[in-house]
Amino acid sequence: MEKGKGSRKWAVDFTDNSSTPLSRDIPDPPGFTRASQDQDDSTLSRQKKDAEANWKSQKAWEVAQAPFKNLLMMGFMMWMAGSTVHLFSIGITFSALWQPLSALQGVGKIFAPYKDSKVDLLAPKLLFIALNLGGMLLGVWKLNTLGLLPTHASDWVSSLAPAHEVEFSGGGIAL
Amino acid sequence: MPKMKIIAILPVLMFLLLIVPSFSLFEDQVGFMDWHQRYIGKVKDAVFHTQKAARKRVVVSTHENVIASLDLRRGDIFWRHVLGPNDVVDNIDIALGKYVITLSSEGSILRAWNLPDGQMVWESLLPGTKSSKSLLVVPANLKVDLDSPIFVYSGSCLHAISSIDGELLWKTDFATHGIDVHQLILPSASAVVHAVGVTDLSHFHTYEVGVMSGEILKHTTASFPGGVYGEILPVSNDRFVALDASRSVLVIISIQNGKTHLQQTHVSDLIHGSSRDTVILPSKLSGIFTVSTDTCIAFIKVTDEGKLHVMEKVDNKVVVSDALSLSEGEQAFALVQHGDSKIHLSVRLVHDMSSNHLKETVEMDHNRGFVHKIFINSYVRTDRSNGFRALIVMEDHSLLLLQQGEIVWSREDGLASIIDVTTAELPVEKIGVSVAKVEHSLFEWLKGHVLKLKGTLMLATPDELVEIQKIRLRSSEKSKMTRDHNGFRRLLVVLTKAGKLFALHTGDGRVVWSSLLQSLRSSEQCSQPTGLKLHQWQIPHHHALDNNPSVLVVGRCGSSLSSATAMSIVDAHTGKEVQNMVPTHSTVQVIYLPFTDSTEQQLHLLIDADNRAHLYPKTPEAAEIFQRESANVYWYSVETEAGILRGYGVKTKCNLDEYCFEARNLWSVVFPSESEKIIATVTRKANEVVHTQAKVIADEDVMYKYVSKNMLFVATVSPKASGPIGSATPDEAVLAVHLVDTVTGRILHRMTHLGSQGPVHAVLSENWVVYHYFNLRAHRYEMSVIEIYDQSRAENKDVLKLIVGKHNLTTPVSSYSRPEVMTKSQSYFFTHSVKAISVTSTAKGITSKHLLIGTVGDQVLALDKRFVDPRRSLNPTQAEKEEGLLPLTDALPIIPQSYVTHAFKVEGLRGIETVPAKLESTTLVFAYGVDLFYTRLAPSRTYDSLTEDFNYALLLLTIVALVVAIFVTWVLSERKDLQDKWR
Questions:
Q1: May I ask the CATH class of domain B83-223?
Q2: For B162, which of A14, B10, B179, B209 is 20 to 30 Å away at the CA?
Q3: Per-domain residue ranges of chain B
Q4: Per residue in B290-311, pLDDT tens?
Q5: A144-163 as b/e, with b when 16 or more CB fall inside 10 Å?
């Protein structure tokens, strides 16, 4: 499928990267002013950069808010799963715990494309972390409603061996 | 809100598995892990039935009140009936060649059983006027005729009973004459019955009673100033012999022409030398009687002139059989002499006493002891001469048939009277099993599993199905003589009434070894010893691993409480008596202390009748351990007669003995004798393991159990209600139950059941007691449960404190701290009356418990403990339901599938013993009575192991199939990928 590679016969390069007419031997066509374009170019690039930063920050906020939808979805799923221990509810609870955890682990990576000197990522990151923590809390809450958290006295004493008895006594009816 | 914790998941899963609480078996699982053995007990009387019978048999009656018909060829039981414990069999005989006649209950019940199949033909009750001895005479020439009766003397009356339907034909009362009849004689071809008896032991009477009417036709009497000791025995039709009250004069009574002559002879004139303890043996030889003294047994012939003539004297260890009539009026009897590991059997003819008609010597295991009884029977050999077979009952209660100098068969009927049970571990498997054996078993294993797989996939032929079943039952694993990983293979060590110790293998119930204990045999130091208790003595676990485990047997010489002790220590692997002690002190109580010495011997205290404690083993080390712990060692006694519980502690050492300790009385609980009488006491099993002190109830609440080993359950009834059911009115009957702390004597709980009475059967385990009694008002049996909780710990409910360990739950408890307790109880109706109650016990105490109830039908019923939970209510909340609490019902359900004995009966059930296996889910159950039954139970199913019939082959096949499938799909996907790339 790589047919024809490396057997180019001719090529025209239309790109013109030069900014001064001096470096060129061909005069500019009439009606064409290079200066205005230069001026234009600098403002344009600034604008472009601003737009990009804007876009990035907007995107970052979007990414930061994404777990919220997830949260709602998870909440719905948990409600659907009910509060008895079975495969489905345990699966959902553990995924609710695992998803925020893995998301938190990769916070840097997720926000890496939006990294920019002009964009302040701290706020979206904090939001992202907060939402994920919220998701995790939801998971923990679910775990508790399932009764899988040791929050009662019974969880700490249910396998406590009987206390040692000081005295020993034996006997009975005469044989 | 329904909540379940991680730790609680396991029981939850168990409950899910256990929706129906039963252990129903499939038909092909019977005999897979259970076994059942049938016994009859020590034979008392035997009647042969060999003439004109296709199946030669012997009908026996035993001391366990069993009548049985045994196959003479193999010793198997054709049929068997276990009469009740109060229905003692007095006499048996065979009538008309087709009925077995038994006289029981002191002669008040006469029954006829069909000989071939043991069906009861008729039964008649013979109410007497005064208690007397009971005699049964079945005429030899009985005809199938209404006028041909059986004669029974019982209750001071002579009865004639039709042999066809058991109708009473006539009855003659001798009580009005004040006569105590000793013998009934029915001369052949005569129309009279002779009754011989005495009045006030000084007058001798003979009566002739008409066979048809029961009229007294003739009466003779003679004065007899010396009085009579024992029996009056007939020597011939008109001569009798008796012993006078001083046991030194023989009296020959002869009746001639309606007159009675007495003739006295001193025993010392006949038998020279000392002659104490003289007894006339009841062997019915014509013209000859036998007299046993402390030195010898003499055969004495009565000549026609009435002269006595000693024919022979033999050693008094000799056992003599009854006479056996041969053809041509000949009579034979057998003598058995005991030699060194041999017995000598000789048969003699009465007419020719000088020589032995037959003499045989049989090798006999010395563990069978002496011969106690012999019954002989003859058969006609091919050369027309008489051959003899002898049925002998040995000292260990075993039954053997001897014929032509060989033991044809033997039955270990001592196992019908087990006194106590314990278990012992088998030896550890040694390394270096031969390769060939492994390969063989591997092949067998594979073959077995392939067959099983076929069975599962329904591809097996009927023959193969039979083969599969055979493999399952004959699993070589289960009867190996080594310890197994799961702890299923054990030795059940049982002590029998005969003083013999048996070790039974739990795999198949075979006797691994048996040993007649020297300490429990009659000797000069110790006469008539009886076994009392069997305890584990040494259990090598960590130290002393080279030693075999051993058991301690404690017995008593004689029957009174103050008689001396007999003790033995027996190696549990070989059955050898390691040590044999005859201490001088008595024993009324054996206490198993929870301390071991450096060789892992268990310390025991034997309490004597004077309330001294004797420490065993008698080593300085044991004494030191005991001295260290003695401040915390207590014991108590229950005096049922006086109605007193007394508690004791150690005071000082006795004067001379290093290992003897004086007691000091610490407390007494006196039950008022006019209102309470102790009828039952129960304690927890010493080796019971409790997993946890907390009980988690609905809504994650916790209750702390009052788990104490020093708790005694005492049941008392009002004295009027201490008789059998129905002897008291509901208003008179009060049943009171108490839970007593045996260290301090404190009564933890007391409850009364008005209108209820015993018998009470109870079981105490962990923090609960379940007891069974009769409710007179409801006319039904009831079962009640009491659970006891510790209130002093109830405050420990703060999670944070529990997490950081700020609680008093692990601090040692003392009974003197008088913890507050709280009890819950509930009662339910129960259909059956009960013979024994026990509870399953497991290694760690995690598995839920089942009550094992020995029912009146001699079966063992498993009842889930959840049915007797005092927290049951009519409408349990959702949370309580999730906890597994059942809605309250007034009666306990009896689920037919939960009979652990399934189709078997453990006749004469007396006890149910449970032993934990190493596998937590499983408990070993041994029920004993006249029969033995053993099985393995998993009250919560085997949640910790695969079942034995798990199909490994199917698993293997599945795995192989999956691997193959993975490989094939992998190859296919590779190929497809390549094709895609080429496209």
A1: mainly beta
A2: B179
A3: 83-223, 588-670, 952-982
A4: 888 877 888 888 877 777 878 8
A5: ebbbbbbebbbbbbbebebb
